[in-house]
Amino acid sequence: MNKYLLALGGISILLMYGILLWTPKPVEQTETPVAEMQIEVVDTEAAREQGLSGRTDVPDNYGMLFVFETKDRYSFWMKDMLVPIDIIWLADDGSIVEIEDSVSPDTYPNSFTAPTPVKYVLETRARYARDNGWGIGTNVPIELP
Q: How is domain 38-131 classified at the architecture level of CATH?
C-alpha cells in the first residue's frame, strides 16, 4: 500500500508540474504611442493662398490647418500642386464633415467645396485620413485655435 501511495503521490506531483509548464503565461501588452501630428497653421489670406503649392513632399504626420475668420463653404483647388493630398473639412468641435481623399494635381482647375459652412480645413498627405481610420464624424486629434 505504501508503494501505491508513493507512486500516486509521484504521479500527482508530475501532473501538477506538467500543468504549470503548459499553462499559458499572460502576454505583456504595451501600447504603441500614436504619432503626434505636426500642424502648420495658416490664417492669413497670403498663407492660405499659397497653401501646399510648390511642395514636392508632404511628410507622414504633417498637416496644414487652414483657419478662417468666419464659417463658409470654402473651396480648394490643386493649382501649382506637385503631389496628391487629402482635403479634410472640420467642424468647430474638430469632427470631420467631409474628406476628399487623394486629390491629384491633375484635377486642376476643378475645385472641392465643403458641404456645410466650416472655419477649419486640414490638408495632409494623400490617404492619411484612410490610413488612420478617419471618416465623416471622426474627431481629429489636433487642437483647433
A: Sandwich (2.60)
